[in-house]
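LOG
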Amino acid sequence: MIQAVRFVKSATGDKDFPPLCSILGTPLREIAVVGRSNVGKSSLLNMLFGTKGVVKTSSQPGKTRLLNFFAFEERMFFVDFPGWGYAKVGKEDRASFLEMVKKYFEAKRDVALVLFLFDSRRDPTTEDLQIWAWFKQEKIPVALVLTKIDKFGVTKRLTEIKRIKKAFEADESDIFPFSTLEGIGKEQVWKRIENGLGR
């Protein structure tokens, strides 16, 4: 019986990346999950997987230091990236994280979609905007997932979504409000993933 979700491995560089195939030998594409530290990547993955605790969450920002690969229904890989921007992470560690990310996208993995998570309560930094612009420039399919949208009332949510859309110069179709607490956005994000996979 195929597991719904299977932790494959953690990796630091291209030599550690798993083969792009399932345990059945069928080819798999990848969904990369990126964003600042403490933006909710682990919580989003657990919600998408319909599991509790498969992807470890932590109250300590910046704890994820590796690329973590998960196989979902042996149909696709999800790749959980280290977060960026945590103040207590030294410059040397931050540089190594960025190098790891760069190596991943240079390794010609079959990336179907990048889920770019952004805390809807924040203003984007120069770093956030540069990374988003790089994905667009490189024509890498990317969706802007606005986490913690439940922190606003319904009317205020629309205002905040419009503000963030303008800051990122994003298209309407790029934006996905999301909340693990209220279950907002799960269906829409899954639909975007399936479209990215060409299904």
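LOG (cont.) second protein
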Amino acid sequence: MTDRLPSWRPGETRERLIAYLDDLKSVPINERVACFDNDGTLWTERPSYIQLDFFVEILTRQVESDPTLRERPEFAALLSHDAAAMDDIGLERLLGSLTSLLDGLTPEQFTALVLDFKNSYKHRTLGTGLEGLVFQPMLELLEELRALEFTVGVVTGGGTEFVRVISEPLYGIPSELVVGSLIGYDLIPDDQGRPSLVRKSSAHGKLNDKEAKVEHIQMHIGRRPILAAGNTAGDQAMLEYALAGPQPGLAILIDHDDADREFSYAGSAETTADGEPIRDVADRLGWLKVSVANDWNQVFP
């Protein structure tokens, strides 16, 4: 027992998790599917989303060559870290404007930008690179699931293309199992007349949040998860879906309540107003509510 999930403190939460894993031998391998939210579930999401930091870094570079970008309200709010203005503008509009900065790039060019960011980024409060922002207990859970021959996917509100670049090196999850918000593409001839994909500034389909997460799991993975993990109201539909199938399911809510080692905050959705607090939903529906403060003896690698 002590060799399994070593960063999870002994107690009811760890015992329930291990008991669930040990009770899966009767579940056919092709039905062993797990889906994890990314921000706030596999890595930290405060004080800002890491993908947002990536786009702000791109914006900062572009402002140097085109100062007029500062005149756009969305960019002015981001560059000045004006939280009130960003709240008024809304996350969707902010991300849409930032995405337009990379309009016309090929997938390969975008990937190169993300890799540069991955190799140089330092978190502004924790002071570490991306590898140090992943939750060690969740890495251990991913290993347990792989040992049980689970298909494991990342189901994120973030951009699919960004998360695809980091999912395998950070989580061991292949890029084809990343389900996120999609950007549009145009197929155009390159300078030698060969077909080439380039990014558009507009999104393709729905933002991958709330009910859309379940829809996109079916569209992209094609199998219902029996285990799902998240941390906000944006993950509620996915967690409920994991419990609604014929096989024994487990819904995991990460409760960020540790201001000393990470951050302390309620898991509210960013795109729409919440109803019932997600912590109360977890208690009412019998989810496994994981307290960062009480259930993890180590947070980061």
